[in-house]
């Protein structure tokens, strides 16, 4: 099973709509999300995505994009609530 990381939410949604699985989301110090995905043929899907040969069901793509956005907004809301407390012992937030 392949493992792939991307900060591109559209590529992440494409991988999900093509059979990939979201195994985690992490944030860097600039609050940029990195999506960690697993699944079969992710490197081929990545190549197809970059060369314009990618084919996907548009309804699944929209649903996958909305799913990733929902997770990000939920995490952002939780992180915002945590930012109201002192910053001691914070760990990176992961989903999965």
Notable characteristics:
96 residues; three-stranded antiparallel β-sheet; disordered C terminus; alpha+beta; globular
Short description:
The protein is an alpha+beta fold.
Folded structure, characterized:
The protein is of the alpha+beta class and 96 residues long. Helices cover 46% and strands 20% of the residues. It has three helices and three strands, in the order βαββαα. Strands 1-3-2 form a three-stranded antiparallel β-sheet, covered by helices on one side.
- Give the class from helix and strand content and strand pairing: alpha+beta
Number of strands: 3
Order of helices and strands: EHEEHH
Largest sheet data: 3 strands, antiparallel
Strand order of the largest sheet: 1-3-2
Unreliable segments of 5+ consecutive residues: 87-94
The shape is globular
N- to C-terminal separation? 16 Å
Helical content stands at 40-55%
Please, what is the average pLDDT? Answer: 87
- Rounded radius of gyration (Å): 15 Å
Number of domains: 1
Estimate what percentage of residues fall within beta strands: 15-25%
Number of helices: 3
Topology:
Layout: E1 2-6, H1 9-17, E2 21-27, E3 33-39, H2 42-51, H3 58-82
Antiparallel strand pairs: 1-3, 2-3
Helix pairs in contact: 1-3
